[in-house]
C-alpha cells in the first residue's frame, strides 16, 4: 500500500481560485491477494506535494492491516487516521491532513467494494451484505452527538428501508438528476455562453449554474442572458466562490434577485457559519437559499451550519470530508434537519465519486428528490476506467465494482509529476 | 531565505494528544545584507515534515522580495501567502498550510524587528516608528468586517494611545502576570503534584492550571488536592484538551464546580462554536467561563466565537494563527467584544513569542489586566538565544531586538531531523 504521487490533469476557470491546475494526490492500496484499491483527493495544483507528503505520513497507520481488520471496525480505523495523537495537532480533521485522510480512505472504500464485487453505493445497501447497524458502525459520532446520536442515525436508516427496492430500481432506470456548471464560467464570452447553453438545452439539461462575484455589471448581463435562454421555469443557481464579506454578499445577491436564482453558493468564507446564517436570513424573503460545502472542512462544521440554519442546500464533497465515513454522518444529519443534499462535483473525478454518495442518500436515507440534484461538470472523465454515465441530464448508477476512483494507467503515467510526459513538455516550453 | 527543516526537542503530557514529541518547523530568512530572521511553528512530532513541505511550497512567494517591499504592504503580503490561487484550496487559512504561513511570517516579523533594532512588542508601538495606521495596515480584514471594520480598529488603537507610556513603564518594571501549567499534568502522582505546587507557591505563583478529562474520580481528587494546597483565594483553571462532546462537557465540569475553577479550557472540538456557546451558557450560573483558542484555526473562527458568546477567555496562539498580522485582528476584535485575552503558551517557544503579543495588547489595545494572564510552562526555554524571563510569576518584557524566535545553533544542530545527534542515538537504541 503506497501513495502514487501527484497527477496534474487540466485547467479551468474559477473566481477565488484564479489559476487552477486541476490535480490529485492519487493513492493505490495493494493487498497480498493482488487486489488493489484506488483513491485520491482533488487539488488545484501547487501544494499537491504537501498532500502527498501527508499521505505518506498516514501510510504507517495503514500498511500491514488486513481489509477485514479495517472494515470490521471502520469507525475505529477512521478515528485512528483522523485522531493520531501527534498528527491531529495539524488539524484536527481539516486542511491538508484531512484531504490526505480522504484520499487514503477513498482507496480503502474502493478496495472494499471491489472485494465485495459491488459498486460502492450498493456496498452500503442492506441487501448487499451490509445492514443499518454496519453502516452506522462506519461513522464517528464524536463531537456531533448534540445534533445526532448513533441511535437516531440507526432509526433513520431502519425507517428508510421501506421503499428502498423501488427507489433503487427507479435509479437504475432513470438515474439521479444533475445540473450543469459547464455553461457559465467567468471569463467565457457572451457568444460562448449562448452556444454552451443552447447545446446544454438540446441535451436535456434543465438546471444551470452561473459563476458570479467578479463584477456586478458583468454578472447582471450574464444572468439575464442565461435566464432568457432557459426561460422562467428552468432552474438557475449562482456561485460566488467565497468572494464577499457578509454585507457585501447580501447586497450583491439582492441585486441579482430578479433572475430568480434558487441558491447563492459560497457567498463568503467557508468557515463563517454565522455569516452564512445572516446571509440566509437576509435572502430568505427573496426566495434565494444559501448553498455551501465544497470547502466545509468536516462534520463538526456541517453540524453547526445545520444547527444555525446557515444553509438551505448541503454540498458534500467526496474528497474533502473523511471519505464515505464522514459523508454518511453529514447525510444523516442533513436528513434529520430536513435540508436537501446537492453534492459538489467537478474538479478531477469528483463526479465519479460523489454519485455513489447521492445514490445512497436517495435510496437509503432521504428517499426524496425534492430540491435535490447533483452537480455535473463536463471534463476530465476520459481519464477514468469507469467514467460517469450521464443520460438526459441524469447520473446513471455505476455498475462496475468499486468507488469509481481508478484512473487509466496511461493517464497516470502521462500526468504524474514530475516525470510524466506532460510535465517534461511543460518544462521544455 | 529557506526553511531549515524540523527540530524535535522534548516530550510532555496531554490528554487528547497522548504522546507528543514536541517539535517545530524552523524557518530562517536570509537577506543580502547578512541580517537573518528566525521563525517557527510548533508541532507535536509526527507530521512535522508535512509542515516543512508546506513551508518550502510557500518559499517561492517570499524569496527575492525585500523586507521594505513586504512591510510597506504587509496586508498584501499576508494575503499573498494566505490566499494563493492554488494553495488556498488546501485551507484556506487552516491546518498545515496556515501553520506553515505562521512559521514564515514569524520569521519575517523577527527580521523586521531586528532590522529596526526593537523587540517585536515595541515595533508595533507608535513611538517606535509605527503608528496606528501602520498597525492596521498589517491586518487583513477580509471576512471579519461584519464584526470589526478597519475604521473601528483604527479608532481602538488611537484611543489606547492615552496612558500608553505609563503602561509600558509599568510592564518594564512589573512584567505581565502569568499562570503556570507545569504543576498538574495528567499522569503526575499526587506526591509530584504536591511537590510541584509547593515549589510554585514558594516562587510566587498564584494561578494554577490542572489537566482534566481522562477520569472524573481522578480529576476530583487532583482538583481537591490543588485547591487545598493553594487555598480559596488563588486561581484554579481546568483544561480538558477537547475530550468531551457538548453534554458530557457540561456534566463533567459541573461535577468539578465545587473547586471553583475560573475556566474550563477546550471542553470540546475546537471547531464547535455553537457547542462552546451551549457550554458557556450552561456553566455561566456556576461562575465558570469557557476558554479556547490554541487550536482555533483563524480570525474568522475567533470572530464567530466572539459573536456567539462562545468563550469568555480568548487564547491566542503565536504559531497557529497567521503570525502577528492575524493575531492583531483577534486582539482588536476581542477588545471590541470586551473579552479578555489570555494567550496559550508552552510547547516549543510559544512563551517566547506570545509575550510580545500580550504586552502589545496591554500597552496598545486593551489597557487592562483584569481577568488577564499569560500561560507559562517551564520547559525548553534553554534552547533559545533570548529565553523568556519570569520574575515573581510575571513575564518580564524582552529586551533583545526581534521576536525571540531564534534557537541556539547548538540546539538546532543536535535536534535537527534526521541528522542530529539526538536522532542518531534514538535510531541506535
TrEMBL record, chains A, B:
Gene Ontology terms describing biological process: amino acid catabolic process; carbohydrate catabolic process
Entry's transmembrane regions: none
A single GO molecular function term of this UniProt record: magnesium ion binding
The enzyme's E.C. designation: 4.2.1.68
Superkingdom per UniProt: Eukaryota
InterPro entries for this protein: Enolase-like_C_sf, Enolase-like_N, Enolase_C-like, L-fuconate_dehydratase, Mandel_Rmase/mucon_lact_enz_CS, Mandelate_racemase_C, Mandelate_racemase_N_dom, RHMD-like
Protein family membership: Belongs to the mandelate racemase/muconate lactonizing enzyme family. ENOSF1 subfamily.
Name listed for the protein in its UniProt record: Mitochondrial enolase superfamily member 1
Gene: ENOSF1
Amino acid at each position: 500500500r503506497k501513495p502514487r504521487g501527484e497527477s496534474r490533469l487540466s485547467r479551468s476557470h474559477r473566481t477565488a481560485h484564479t489559476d487552477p491546475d486541476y490535480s490529485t494526490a492519487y493513492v493505490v492500496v495493494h493487498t497480498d491477494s493482488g487486489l488493489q484499491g484506488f483513491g485520491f483527493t482533488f487539488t488545484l495544483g501547487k501544494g499537491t506535494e504537501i498532500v502527498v507528503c501527508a499521505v505518506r505520513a498516514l501510510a504507517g497507520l495503514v500498511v500491514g492491516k488486513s481489509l477485514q481488520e479495517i472494515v470490521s471496525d471502520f469507525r475505529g480505523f477512521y478515528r485512528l487516521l483522523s485522531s493520531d495523537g501527534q498528527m491531529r495537532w495539524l488539524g484536527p480533521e481539516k486542511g491538508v491532513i484531512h484531504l490526505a485522510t480522504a484520499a487514503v480512505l477513498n482507496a480503502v472504500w474502493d478496495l472494499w467494494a471491489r472485494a465485495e464485487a459491488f459498486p460502492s453505493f450498493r456496498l452500503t445497501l442492506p441487501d448487499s451484505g451490509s445492514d443499518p447497524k454496519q453502516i452506522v458502525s462506519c461513522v464517528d459520532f464524536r463531537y456531533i452527538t448534540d445534533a445526532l446520536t448513533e441511535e437516531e442515525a440507526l432509526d433513520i436508516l431502519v425507517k428508510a428501508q421501506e421503499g428502498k427496492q423501488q427507489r433503487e430500481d427507479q435509479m437504475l432506470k432513470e438515474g439521479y438528476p444533475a445540473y450543469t456548471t459547464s455553461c457559465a464560467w467567468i471569463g467565457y464570452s457572451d457568444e460562448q455562453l449562448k452556444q454552451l447553453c443552447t447545446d446544454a438545452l438540446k441535451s436535456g439539461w434543465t438546471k444551470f449554474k452561473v459563476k458570479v462575484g467578479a463584477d456586478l455589471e458583468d454578472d447582471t448581463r450574464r444572468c439575464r442572458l442565461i435566464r432568457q435562454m432557459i426561460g422562467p421555469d428552468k432552474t438557475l443557481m449562482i456561485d460566488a466562490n467565497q468572494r464577499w464579506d457578509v454585507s457585501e454578499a447580501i447586497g450583491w445577491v439582492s441585486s441579482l434577485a430578479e433572475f430568480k436564482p434558487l441558491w447563492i453558493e459560497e457567498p463568503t468564507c467557508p468557515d463563517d457559519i454565522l455569516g452564512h446564517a445572516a446571509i440566509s436570513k437576509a435572502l430568505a424573503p427573496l426566495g434565494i437559499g444559501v448553498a455551501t460545502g465544497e470547502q466545509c472542512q468536516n462534520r463538526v462544521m456541517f453540524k453547526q451550519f445545520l444547527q444555525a440554519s446557515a444553509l438551505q442546500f448541503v454540498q458534500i464533497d467526496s474528497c474533502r470530508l473523511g471519505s464515505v465515513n464522514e459523508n454518511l454522518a453529514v447525510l444523516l444529519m442533513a436528513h434529520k434537519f430536513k435540508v436537501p443534499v446537492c453534492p459538489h462535483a467537478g474538479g478531477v473525478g469528483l463526479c465519479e465519486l460523489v454519485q455513489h454518495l447521492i445514490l445512497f442518500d436517495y435510496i437509503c436515507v432521504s428517499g426524496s428528490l425534492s430540491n435535490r440534484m447533483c452537480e455535473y461538470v463536463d471534463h476530465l472523465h476520459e481519464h477514468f476506467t469507469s467514467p460517469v454515465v450521464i443520460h438526459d441530464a441524469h447520473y446513471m448508477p455505476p455498475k462496475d465494482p468499486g468507488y469509481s476512483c481508478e484512473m487509466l494507467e496511461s493517464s497516470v503515467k502521462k500526468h504524474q509529476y514530475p516525470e510524466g510526459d506532460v510535465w517534461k513538455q511543460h518544462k521544455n516550453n
